[in-house]
Design goal:
The complex is a heterodimer of chains A (235) and B (259). Chain A is α/β, with parallel strands linked by helices. Chain A contains nine helices and ten strands. Chain A has one domain: 3-Layer(aba) Sandwich (Rossmann fold). By secondary structure, chain B is mainly α. Chain B has one domain (2-255). Helices cover 83% and strands 0% of the residues of chain B. Chain B is globular. Classes of the chains: A alpha/beta (235), B mainly alpha (259). Chain A binds chain B through residues 15-17, 50, 53-57, 71-73, 75-76, 80, 82, 84-90, 95, 99, 102-104, and chain B through 3, 6-7, 10-11, 14, 68-72, 74-80, 172, 176-178, 254-259. Chain B: The chain crosses the membrane at residues 12-32, 38-62, 83-108, 145-167, 179-195, 227-253. Chain B: This is ABC-2 family transporter protein.
């Protein structure tokens, strides 16, 4: 692994029952960039992220995070936001913040409170009572309040209204700096295109196309969204 | 590890508080019916509480393995071994809490029974009774109670560990197989069969060394040390079972889990 490489995936396969979710995925993620993991629903984006996050075990293949195989130690490096509503519903928001503070050494409580205050999430609210928009914002706020090297946000714009999407995009941009690496999965390409350095197109568990976003725009003569439509037109 | 236990207990406190308030209400209702009501409550409380305890302990782990809220735990940088051990320690704490509450109910209802039957409560007599119990005047003393409680504790933890191991195997090695719930139960039965046949062989192998103790027991009196010796093989097997299955579960959680 080169010094610039944060994540390397070699010949990764993941099968469920008789369905192949990921097939022979090879990927290299460099430090300091924002990657868009793009593909329609069911293309394998969530599965790929869950394998990297250590929530799913791959059927075969290798995943190295910062040169080390996946283990509980790699979870300390990765700030992962699942697409599902994973936060324990009986907790109040303040309990969730306390949980993160106790569990993650790199969690910054002040940052979390500042973000939540900015997006009007009351810490006294019970998580189960939050609207889907507020839950989405809370999940993003929690993930971005960790001072991690590597962020993985799975469909951060899913299920939230247009105004909330802007807020979430703003949060992501404010949290990013050149020492941080991000993978953001989505099928809402137009919303996210402007912040992407690189793109990975995943179709039926196979990487169809990957590369530098700007180079792809120039070489193909179209936007990433246009390219997305072309690649997945028949998906 | 302490943090994991802390948050497990935080998750439980609400349900636990409701259960205590409900039990208190039920007890007050039965106490109004006199000594009979108190005896009924004292007899049935451990059965109901025991069943609820087992259900809650299984649910505590099952929810984390099968519901999305489990991601919250499994995303943290804690090893699989820490996670499974924290669950077991939480189970033990919960068990002790229920036991403590039961003792309090015994005391409250004991007083109620005495009052209802017109018996005067003489505290010096109660203290004397406890002293007699502890000094062995009734054939048992604190040593016996300690050995007995320790044995019960290891059996309960061994049982919980077996259930947890079955669920972990289902969510790791057999995660891609259909009919998971049924499979989990079959794994649990298989584990029990393997453990009981192994421990049966073990007991058979060591039984000749226990003849002298059997003779002592047949005379109707047994010392705490002898009781410990009698129970030692069972306790030993349970401890081995706990260590082995916790190790297996921890390894699978760390390396093979599919949530």
């Amino acid at each position: 692994m080169s010094k610039l490489e944060l994540l390397r995936i070699e010949n990764l396969n993941k099968r469920y029952y008789n369905k192949t979710a990921l097939s022979d995925v090879n990927l290299s993620i460099e430090k300091g960039k924002i990657y868009g993991l793009l593909g329609p629903n069911g293309s394998g984006k969530t599965t790929l992220m869950k394998v990297i996050a250590g929530l799913h075990k791959q059927t075969s293949g290798n995943v190295l995070v910062d040169g080390e195989p996946l283990s509980h130690k790699s979870k300390a490096l990765i700030s992962y936001m699942p697409t599902e509503n994973y936060i324990y519903g009986d907790y109040k928001v303040k309990h969730v913040i306390r949980f993160y503070k106790d569990m993650y050494e790199d969690f910054q409580e002040d940052t979390a409170l500042k973000i939540l205050n900015g997006i009007k999430v009351d810490t006294e609210f019970r998580v189960s009572k939050l609207s889907s928009g507020l839950t989405g914002k809370l999940k993003v706020a929690l993930a971005l309040s960790r001072n991690a090297e590597f962020y993985m946000l799975d469909e951060p714009l899913n299920g939230v209204d247009v105004l909330s999407r802007d807020v979430i995009m703003d949060l992501i941009m404010k949290s990013y700096n050149e020492n941080k690496t991000m993978i953001i999965s989505t099928h809402l390409v137009s919303e996210i295109e402007k912040i992407l350095d690189s793109v990975i197109f995943l179709k039926d568990g196979v990487i169809e196309l990957q590369g530098d976003a700007e180079e792809l725009r120039l070489s193909k003569g179209m936007s990433v969204e246009g390219l997305y439509k072309e690649v997945f037109r028949n998906a | 590890m302490l943090n994991l236990i802390k948050y497990e207990l935080i998750k439980k406190y609400k349900l636990f508080s409701i259960a205590i308030i409900f039990s208190l209400g039920l007890n007050v209702y039965h106490m109004t019916k006199g000594a009979g009501g108190s005896i009924f409550f004292i007899a049935f409380f451990p059965m109901i509480a025991g069943i609820l305890y087992i259900v809650d302990v299984i649910r505590m782990y099952s929810d984390d393995l099968n519901k999305k809220s489990g991601y919250m735990l499994f995303m943290t940088p804690n090893s699989g071994y820490k996670i499974i051990v924290s669950k077991l320690i939480t189970s033990v704490i919960e068990g002790f809490a229920i036991l403590l509450i039961y003792f309090i109910f015994i005391l409250i209802n004991g007083v109620n029974i005495a009052i209802s039957s017109g018996t005067e409560i003489v505290y010096s007599q109660i203290i004397r009774l406890v002293n007699s119990l502890l000094s062995g005047s009734f054939g048992i003393n604190l040593g016996h109670i300690f050995v007995f409680l320790f044995a019960v504790l290891t059996f309960i933890i061994a049982f919980i560990t077996t259930v947890y191991a079955a669920m972990t195997i289902r969510k790791s090695i057999f995660s891609e197989v259909k009919f998971g719930g049924l499979l989990s139960f079959i794994i649990f039965m298989l584990l029990n069969w393997v453990i009981s046949s192994l421990s049966g062989n073990f007991f058979e192998a060591i039984s000749p060394y226990y003849e002298s103790i059997s003779n002592t027991m047949s005379m109707g009196r047994i010392s705490p040390a002898d009781l410990a010796m009698v129970m030692l093989p069972m306790i030993g097997v349970s401890i081995f079972q706990i260590v082995a299955l916790t190790g297996v579960s921890g390894y699978l959680l760390e390396n093979k889990i599919n949530l």
